[in-house]
Design brief:
single chain, alpha+beta, six-stranded mixed sheet, four-stranded antiparallel sheet, 30% strand, globular
Length: 389
């Protein structure tokens, strides 16, 4: 474990506990005398008790470490589908990125599939499409509110992230949003009170800040890292995974700013590889030459693919973390599975029992049992231009 970097009394208590745990682990490895072990066990327990007390009743009654910023305007204009204004046409004239492909589980029986300007609300058990929505141009399905009613769609390139003169931190972040009401089947005219949005912004490329859209509060993250980037949100936006590499990173609570998980899956490779055709390869049962050939074939396929390989992260009600990194390796939290084929997006269901994976041509729903199984395949329709009013 490594110390948490956010300068907060609660996180300092975390750091003290981690230091005690690391020291105790080292003493056990060295076979230290029982009297020394008992003393360090007592110190570790005291550090744990102090942390629990601080979380329950933090100093000044508030565990937040967010710094104040400029709040979102009360009359923010949300984007809606339809023809662009001349100003918008000029703004978007340079945009040529490929259509977004994103997955979000609304609940156990409903999967949201974004394919460019089309959002399909589908059943993950049989692929039946219950509803189709035309989206505004250049938005990406990002997260739900905690009641799974509102879907936030974010235009990553049309965000306002200003810095005051002489300052090195963002002071405003609120533009380029669209919100879809999944109950009313309509786009919202106002930003819902229950929908939170905390996003990663940069004042400089090497500086990462989490910024709350509504309040403008901000928090520096991974201050020792080089160019931290967003890896993934949990489905309700309650946690955000920020990383400076494929495997390294921190998962941060977007309400309190506390770091909940560090170093996602570094230097570990799952031994179970799932192929795109549904077959399973157990690399521990193969020779070194066969494993090397499999690794070479996977690296070549990944390098030749133009898919984004988006990561995903989820947390069960019992507090168990699962994540898929951009290499396709899945951890829960031990190495569980490698997706040995190019993919564009992944998403966990709310119970962390299934994983949805989008490729160029289809969406796969995979069970995460002892032996991974492809439960269902849903072919993606061709990307024809959507009909607009």
């Amino acid at each position: 474990a490594k110390p948490l970097r956010v300068p907060n009394p609660v996180n300092r208590a975390y750091e003290k506990l981690l230091m005690c745990l690391n020291r105790l682990e080292r003493l056990i490895e060295l076979d230290a005398p029982p009297i020394i072990l008992r003393n360090d066990e007592r110190m570790t327990q005291q550090a744990f008790d102090a942390l629990c007390e601080m979380v329950v009743a933090p100093p000044d009654g508030d565990p937040s470490v967010w710094e104040p910023g400029r709040p979102m305007p009360t009359q923010i204009e949300l984007r809606r589908p339809g023809a662009l204004t001349p100003e918008e046409e000029e703004l978007y004239s340079w945009r040529d990125e490929p259509p977004a492909l994103r997955l979000i589980w609304r609940d156990a029986d409903e999967l949201l599939i974004q394919q460019g300007e089309r959002l399909a609300i589908a059943s993950p058990s049989d692929g039946a499409v219950r509803h189709t929505v035309v989206l505004p141009r250049f938005v990406t399905a990002t997260l739900l509110d905690r009641d799974a009613r509102y879907l936030l769609l974010l235009d990553e390139y049309n965000q306002v992230s200003e810095t005051a003169e002489g300052e090195d931190r963002p002071t405003r972040y609120w533009s380029g949003l669209a919100v879809y009401d999944l109950l009313e089947r309509a786009f919202c005219e106002r930003y819902p009170d229950t929908l939170t949005q905390t996003s990663l912004q940069h004042a400089e490329p090497e500086d990462g800040w989490l910024v709350k859209a509504r309040s403008g509060e901000h928090l520096a993250v991974m201050e020792q890292a080089d160019r931290p980037t967003l890896n993934a949100y949990t489905r309700d936006g309650g946690f955000i995974w920020v990383s400076d590499g494929m495997d390294e990173g921190e998962v941060i609570d977007t309400e309190s700013g506390l770091v909940h998980l560090t170093t996602c899956g570094a230097d570990q490779t799952p031994s179970i590889w799932l192929q795109e055709d549904g077959s399973v390869v157990v690399t521990d049962e193969r020779s070194d030459d066969e494993r090397d050939a499999l690794e070479d074939a996977w690296n070549e396929a990944r390098d030749d693919s133009d898919l984004a390989h988006s990561a995903a992260i989820g947390r069960s009600a019992a507090g168990v973390w699962c994540w898929v990194d951009t290499n396709g390796d899945l951890f829960c939290p031990e190495p569980r599975l490698r997706l040995a084929f190019p993919f564009a997006a992944t998403a966990f269901d709310p119970q962390l029992e299934r994983l949805a994976v989008a490729t160029h041509a289809e969406v796969l729903v995979i069970s995460l049992g002892e032996v991974p199984t492809v439960l269902f395949r849903w072919p993606l329709p061709p990307l024809d231009p959507p009909e607009r009013e």
